[in-house]
Amino acid sequence: MAATESVRVKVEGTGIPVPGDDIDTDRIIPARYLREISFEALGKYAFFDERYDEAGKPKPHPLNDPRFQDGAILIVGRNFGCGSSREHAPQALMRMGIRAFIGESFAEIFSGNCTALGLPAARVSHEDAQAIAGLVEADPHAAVSIDLDAASIAVSGRRFSFTMPDSDRRSLLTGEWDTTSVLLSNEKSIRAAAARIPYVNGFRT
Amino acid sequence: MGRSLLDKVWDLHKVGTLPSGQDQLFIGLHLIHEVTSPQAFQALKDRGLKVMFPGRTFATVDHIVPTDDQRRPFADGQAEAMMQAIERNTREHGIRFFGLGSAEQGIVHIIGPELGLTQPGMTVACGDSHTSTHGALGSLAFGVGTSQIRDILATQTLSLTRPKVRRIDVSGGLAAGVSSKDLIIRIIADLGVNGGIGFAYEYAGPAIESLPMEARLTLCNMSIEAGARAGYVNPDATTFSYLKGRTFAPQGADFETALTFWKGIASDPDARYDDVFKLEGASVEPMVAWGINPGQAVGVSRRLPRVSDAKPEDRDALRKAYEHTGFDENSPLQGLQVDVAFVGSCTNGRISDLREAARVLKGRKVSPRVKALAVPGSRSVARQAESEGLPDVFRAAGFQWREAGCSMCLAMNPDKLTDRQVCASSSNRNFIGRQGSPKGRTLLMSPAMVAAAALAGEVVDVRALGD
Fold first, then answer.
1. What is the pLDDT of residue B1?
2. B247, CA 20 to 30 Å: which among B187, B204, B300, B363?
3. Are residues B210 and B84 in the same domain?
């Protein structure tokens, strides 16, 4: 049974538009910050090389923009999170306060990693992604509200529908996105599957 | 209606359907490395869980391993801590570990096939996106995040959605001087870096069937760069003869039993596909991915694209690519200067790749402006190369010959670009900052093309060099 705090029915916060397509996980978190054996300290490294120059001086980037300092919902383009499977990418964003993503599309491993962390990744059309980013730009304090039950997003009095794989939406709604205990509850069936797969038994009958 | 390999492998490994609607899938082979596994072991510990099938997980170290001085402790304290974590975790949980003390150490996607661990009809998972590589042997192989590594360690299963299958049908054969690296870059350029989202790619047709196993590994390796989490080639005689005699492959009478299973797992001739993409093998020329993703690529005889000629949805990314690279629209690809040359990685760090590069380099000298690195993908590859005298060929040409590891593919170890350097690289990603310098630039190409670029100090067509 999932704890109530893991249930995601509505995720609300202010937005941060991060424009651009095909933003890969190397850009979200440069590889040199992966040399830590824990995810805990990763928040400060999100988009590091896009946010700071070599001297550590801030560059213009939405995450450095004072208007979006308290943002919790990242508004992105197409194929966000492509490339490396590193869970460090959503972990870093989560640990800097991001609680959901709205974008045109997400790379598969990235969106799976997001669901595994309880972070909704909502897909909208190109036009709607631009419209939502525009509304947030116009009013950075506007609440962006993602309703997982209704599969809709509300911003500044406008409503947008989003899509998400049914299984992801269901996991978030029931709070069972941390799959380990669900999988483990089927131990008997796991062992039965192992017993019938030829190579697991060295091809010996 | 027949079934595809994906259908057969999926059904065989399906444990059941979960409340979310996803399937619970048994994972036959789990590979781990030092970077994405320590957090998963910590999560097991926090929850008081054990590894359910320790015999089905194998570990090695590759990402952070220095390729020059491998003495312990490493100069980099964080890398050293990471090494100690995987040594401790594998020991505590009884997992077979090919560490630095092992003759089998190497890049995880090189050693899986090379040891015969990867076999047709298996499900293979690893906390690394290039796990798609293993599909070359007719397995269903994909990268996972660390939460999923935790799931596999604890249950040997994953919660997954069955992907659609796109058959990539390549007719005829590849022309002389064209490799499977060129073919996969062409496929990514044609279908887009996001074109494969939701799909597994089945590579098929005469041009694929005639590829040797190592070329198939290169092909499947970069499926993820097309957005496809998995890519595979149906197992055939090439696959079976590759596996015969390998350390973890079935031996003797078991091999014969295995053969029957392996043959049966291939896609049926009348299998149904969600999509089919056809490509003429002879139309592929040596390719270079010049931009900031592997799909921004052109044939070696071509010019860099004009933004105004691109599809409207691709223009922003193209503008960003020019902004980063500083290259000029519509300038010829050949003649782009390179500062660094890198032969290696899970894409092209196998013995056939080193032979190809050495064949180009033999009796020639690397341009004085180029720093050049040859990095075998595993210790076994290094030993084979040594027995063929390849390190001497590389060194005589002006290359450095290194120890096995991921090296300059991903900037987690001391091998990195500096400042605005341009690297001709046989690796898989030209993302901004990928090779360690936020301003660095990466040109992806085949090992032979890298060797040719190292000699000329600029991008050239390897086919024009002659023997």
1. 83
2. B204
3. no
- Condensed to tens digits (0 to 9), the pLDDT of residues B165-213 reads 999 999 999 999 999 999 999 999 999 999 999 999 999 999 999 999 9
Determine the average pLDDT of the residues in B351-362: 98
Q: In chain B, which among 330-389 make CB contacts under 8 A with chain A?
A: none
- Residues of chain B with Cβ-Cβ distance to A126 below 8 Å are 313
The C-alpha atoms of residue B41 and residue B26 are separated, in whole angstroms, by 19
Together in a domain, B192 and B327: no
Distance, in angstroms, between B406 CA and closest chain A CA?
A: 12
Domain boundaries, chain A: 9-175
- B52 lies in the same domain as B155: yes
Question: In angstroms, what separates the C-alpha of A66 from chain B's closest C-alpha?
Answer: 24
pLDDT (tens digit per residue) in B117-142 = 999 999 999 999 999 999 999 999 99
Residues of A in contact with B85 (CB under 8 A): 37
Mean of pLDDT over chain A: 96
Number of domains in chain B: 3
- How high is the mean pLDDT of chain B? 97
Domain boundary among B136, B160, B184: B160
The verdict on B46 touching A (C-beta cutoff 8 Å) is no
In the predicted structure, residue B467 carries a pLDDT above the cut 70: no
Instruction: With beta carbons under 8 A apart, name residues in chain B contacting A202.
Output: 250, 254
Using the Cβ of B259 and the Cβ atoms of chain A, whether some distance falls under 8 Å is answered with no
How many residues are recorded in chain A?
205
Residue B136's domain comprises: 5-160
Q: Which residues of B touch A7 (CB under 8 A)?
A: none
Q: Looking at beta carbons, which residues of chain B come within 8 Å of A105?
A: 194, 197
> What pLDDT does B314 receive?
93
What percent of chain A stands above pLDDT 90? 96
Q: Which residue of B has its CA nearest to A167?
A: B20
Q: Indicate the CATH number of A9-175 among 3.20.19.10, 3.30.70.100, 3.40.30.10, 3.40.50.2000.
A: 3.20.19.10
Give CA–CA dist A30/A24, Å, rounded: 10
- Count interface pairs A-B at CB distance under 8 A: 224
Please write down the HEC assignment for all residues of chain A: CCCHHHCCCEEEEEEEECCCCCCEHHHHCCHHHHCCCCCHHHHHHCCHHHHECCCCCECCCHHHCHHHCCCCEEECCCCECECCCCCHHHHHHHHCCCCEEEECCECHHHHHHHHHCCCCEEECCHHHHHHHHHHHHHCCCCEEEEECCCCEEEECCEEEECECCHHHHHHHHHCCCCCHHHHHCCHHHHHHHHHHCHHHHCCCC
Q: What is the pLDDT of residue B466?
A: 75
